[in-house]
Every structure is written in C-alpha cells, then in structure tokens.
Amino acid sequence: MAKPLSKAVIPAAGLGTRFLPATKAMPKEMLPVVDKPAIQYVVEEAVDAGLSDVLVVTGRNKTAIDNHFDRVYELESTLEQKGKGEMLRVVNESTALADMHYVRQGDPLGLGHAVLRARMHVGNEPFAVLLGDDIIDARDELLKRMLEVTEAKGATVIALMEVDPSMTHLYGVASVEATDEDDVVKVTGLVEKPEQGSQPSNLAVIGRYVLQPEVFDILEKTPPGKGGEIQLTDALLTLADDDSIAGGVYGVVFRGRRYDTGDKLDYIKAIVQLATDRSDLGPDLRPWLKDFVAGL
C-alpha cells in the first residue's frame, strides 16, 4: 500500500434496545465493562494496531460518546487539586487516545449504510471497521494480523471465528477455501444469518473488517437486504465474487478471546471474565466466585 493504513471507523448509531431501560438515556456503547465504557476498549484496540484516526458513526442521544473522549477541565482540575494523580491519569488516557471524529448516520438503514457515511472522511484508502459489540482481548492480536494480511494481499480482510453450528443463524457465515497460511482463508461466499441447517460452514463473521475503498461504490448500489437494511455482508459478497474489483476477500480465523457484549448474559460474562484476569480485582474476585457458585 502507498502509505500505512491509519483510519478506523466505529459504527455506534444503534438504539441499544436489548439493554433497555439502561440505554434509554445512555448509549449502549457507554455501558461500563468493569471500569471503562465498551467503546473505549474498541478505540484502544484500534490505536494498539497503529490506527490513530478514529471516526465514530453516531446517532441521536449519543453525545456522551464524544464527551467521554473530550477534555473535562472541571474534573481534571478537581482531581489535580486533591492530589489524585492516578485518577487524573486514567481520565486523561481516554482524552489522548486518538484523533477522534464524529458523523451522524441519520437514517437507521443498517451497517452498510453506517460504513457508507464514512466515505468523505476515509477518502480513497483502505480502512478498518470495528463493531463495539465485540471486545477482543488486548492479549490476543487480531486487528494487527488483519492489517498484515491486507498489506500482503491488497485485499479486503474480515475476521472469522468458529462457532457452534446451532448458533450460525445469528451471524454472517462464510464459505471459504484454504490458503498456505493456517489462520488465513480465501472467502468465496457469505450468507447473512442463514436459516438453521443451510449454513455453508461454522465460520462466523465477527465485528472486525479491513476494507478497500472500492466498497463505497458497491454500497452505493446495494439495495436493502435482510431486515430492510443495507447489509455490509451483501457488499462483501460482491467483492468476494470478483477478485478483479479490489483483490477479493480473505478471512483471518481468530482463535483468541472475544467478549460479546451484545446481549445481557454475554455482557455479564464479559465483565466477569475481564475482572477475574485483572491483577487488582482477580485475587479477591476469584475466591468469592468459587464460594458463590458452591452455594448455589
């Protein structure tokens, strides 16, 4: 590529209806996972992979997101005056993470439409898309690997993960061919939320993509699909069907730790899993959990 990929897009315009009433006045992306909002984990992942320019595609009632990544002078001044240096450092971390930008999606027309809204900001260069429902453990590099494959192939790269066949109807599912790399496959087809028993594989698309700019022209022409929304999966299928457009589509098969914060039960599991691994919380939390479970 002519220059290192630097831009990430985070769609964050959803209403968060599965978490009502908590999300009535708070964006779902701001729900805390231990002591950070979910979207901060996603921004940190992008930054750790070398992406310094982050565009968040927002909707109504989402101003808490840009406030979180902005300066809060009154709070900073209070913490400094009270000598709470560690708290001040944590507050300033989110402010200095990345060069943050925001655009409204407007009409709620699906993920493909949200990505299309990034066109003016991204321009004619490859970019990453990270969905906030999926938190990838910082100890397991996924996005960096995807960027490596993109640079080597000059193609679109999506993240895939093996799921139980009974769960494939909840995901986009890929048809693939093996390559000479164990964790990389050539994507030959994609189906959005296939009916039970009709799935082409158990490789589900999870919320990480590295897209070539040609995807914008395709999304412009993509009609509404499942749910009456413009599906990113449909545009990816067009790219997968014709390698001459932008090098085709490859998948990185992720075998690390992924925390799904998209529904209530998995959100709770994510908090417990991340908290038990922390040095400041785990030593006290793990024995408490054992006692709690033993008493059920």
UniProtKB/TrEMBL annotation:
GO terms for biological process: UDP-alpha-D-glucose metabolic process. SUPFAM superfamilies: Nucleotide-diphospho-sugar transferases. GO terms for molecular function: UTP:glucose-1-phosphate uridylyltransferase activity. InterPro entries: GalU_uridylyltTrfase_bac/arc, NTP_transferase_dom, Nucleotide-diphossugar_trans. It is an enzyme of class 2 (transferase). Keywords: Nucleotidyltransferase, Transferase. It catalyses: alpha-D-glucose 1-phosphate + UTP + H(+) = UDP-alpha-D-glucose + diphosphate. Gene3D superfamilies: Spore Coat Polysaccharide Biosynthesis Protein SpsA, Chain A. Its EC number is 2.7.7.9. Pfam families: NTP_transferase. Residues 7-275 form the Nucleotidyl transferase domain. The keyword Cell inner membrane does not apply. The keyword Acetylation does not apply. Signal peptide: none annotated. NCBIfam families: galU. Belongs to the UDPGP type 2 family. This is UTP--glucose-1-phosphate uridylyltransferase. It comes from Cnuibacter physcomitrellae. The lineage of its organism: Bacteria, Bacillati, Actinomycetota, Actinomycetes, Micrococcales.
